[in-house]
Structures are given as structure tokens and as C-alpha cells.
Amino acid sequence: MIGRLAGRLDYKAADHVLISVGGVGYVVHVSDRVMASLPGPGEAVSLYTDLLVREDLLQLFGFTTLLEKEWHRLLMSVQGIGAKASLAILGALGAEGVGRAVALGDAAAIAVAKGVGPKTAQRVVLDLKDKAPAVMALGGTMAAAGARAEASAPVVEDTAPASRPPPPSGAAQSEALSALTNLGYGPSEAVSAVAEAAADAPGAETPDLIRAALRLLAPKG
């Protein structure tokens, strides 16, 4: 299994890139969002990858964060969602956006992705809603692991600094989710409150998310 590639970006196509590592060129399919974040040809690049294996096909898919890769794997488990649809969803919403949409049951947000109809979007929400809390809780752990990997692994064939993805905002959400579950709230209600709070205040820090989520969870009336 090829889990990560670090090398030189040789070229960009419409939906894939070629990364040169140790004299071997790897074709890696990426979403529009990942494509927009990559440097120009000839520059250093690093992507987490997932390998799709079929009888007549081997394809690599690339992601800037481990959280994005995990959501890709989950999306691919939903009936009617192939690799192309998964990349379309992640390209439209990003990993954190997918997490919020699934947690809040917002099928309409999923359906904005190209090629994903309302029925398929509803299936995504229904199939993955119970899995969203665990993935969001893993967000901070994945971010820390990714930072360690970027700091320790040298880029092959290039002396220029490696391209680093921006820190994922999911870390604050996972910390807030952990705090709420420690306070005794159930996983489903905690993840819904954190997702709603994050949607209302993108980029909010952990304490602000916790306070906002607690206000949402407070008894009404």
C-alpha cells in the first residue's frame, strides 16, 4: 500500500498530477480543491494517498490531510459513490465540510457536488451519520500525526522546502467534541452541536466552539 508520496511535481492535468519520486513517476488523481492547493511544476510536493485496486486497474488518489483521506475511504463505502463522486464531494466541501454536512444530516450540501444527485446524497448522510463522531474525534490525532510526518520525512529528489498543507481546522472541532463527550453528552448530540457551532463560526478556536455548542445543547425555554 502506498500511503504517502513526497517528491517533485512534474505536471498537472485536469484531474490528476504526476509526482516524481526516486526516478519513478506516479499518476495521482486529486480533487479540484487539492489541485488548487498544489505548487507549480518542478516544485516539491507531498500528498497522502489511497490506492484503488481492481482486476484491470490501479489508481492512486491524493489528499493534503489524513482526515480528507479518511473521509474519502468512508465515502467510497457508500453504495453509488465511486472515486470520482468522492473527489467531487471533497472538492466541493472539504473534509471538515463533509463532516459537518453528515453530522447535521444536510444532504443538500452533499448534493452540490457535481454528479451527486439528491437520492445519493441522502444515502451518504444516512450511511455515514453514525460514523461521523468517530472521524471528527480523530481529526486532532490525524493532524498531529500529519505534522510529525511532514517534519520528519525528507522530500525525495529535491532540495527545496516541501510544500505543506495548511493546518486543518478540524483539530479544534475534535477537541470540542472530546470535551462535550467527557461532560456526558452523547456522541450524536455532541457532534451535531459542534458541527453547527463550527458552521456558524468558521475558524473558531476550541474554547469558543465548546461555549457555542453548550449554548446549542442547553434546554430551551
UniProtKB/TrEMBL annotation:
> Which parts of the sequence belong to the Holliday junction DNA helicase RuvA C-terminal domain?
172-218
Subcellular compartments:
Cytoplasm
Primary location group: cytoplasm
What keywords tag this UniProt record? ATP-binding, Cytoplasm, DNA damage, DNA recombination, DNA repair, DNA-binding, Helicase, Hydrolase, Nucleotide-binding
Asked whether the UniProt record includes Thylakoid among its keywords, one would answer no
The record's annotation in InterPro entries points to: DNA_helicase_Holl-junc_RuvA_I, NA-bd_OB-fold, RuvA, RuvA_2-like, RuvA_C, RuvA_C_sf
Residue limits of the DNA helicase Holliday junction RuvA type domain? 1-62
- Tell me the segments the record calls region Domain III: 163-221
- Region: Disordered; residue ranges are 154-178
Which is one GO molecular function term here?
A: ATP binding
Q: Region (Domain I) spans which residues?
A: 1-64
Q: Name one GO cellular component term.
A: Holliday junction resolvase complex
In Gene Ontology terms, what is a biological process of this protein?
Answer: DNA recombination
Name the Pfam families for this protein: HHH_5 (PF14520), RuvA_C (PF07499), RuvA_N (PF01330)
Q: Which HAMAP family match?
A: DNA_HJ_migration_RuvA (MF_00031)
Q: How does it assemble?
A: Homotetramer. Forms an RuvA(8)-RuvB(12)-Holliday junction (HJ) complex. HJ DNA is sandwiched between 2 RuvA tetramers; dsDNA enters through RuvA and exits via RuvB. An RuvB hexamer assembles on each DNA strand where it exits the tetramer. Each RuvB hexamer is contacted by two RuvA subunits (via domain III) on 2 adjacent RuvB subunits; this complex drives branch migration. In the full resolvosome a probable DNA-RuvA(4)-RuvB(12)-RuvC(2) complex forms which resolves the HJ.
Q: What is known of its domains?
A: Has three domains with a flexible linker between the domains II and III and assumes an 'L' shape. Domain III is highly mobile and contacts RuvB.
What the protein does comes down to: The RuvA-RuvB-RuvC complex processes Holliday junction (HJ) DNA during genetic recombination and DNA repair, while the RuvA-RuvB complex plays an important role in the rescue of blocked DNA replication forks via replication fork reversal (RFR). RuvA specifically binds to HJ cruciform DNA, conferring on it an open structure. The RuvB hexamer acts as an ATP-dependent pump, pulling dsDNA into and through the RuvAB complex. HJ branch migration allows RuvC to scan DNA until it finds its consensus sequence, where it cleaves and resolves the cruciform DNA.
What the record says about family reads:
Belongs to the RuvA family.
What is this protein's record name? Holliday junction branch migration complex subunit RuvA
Q: Specify the species.
A: Roseisalinus antarcticus
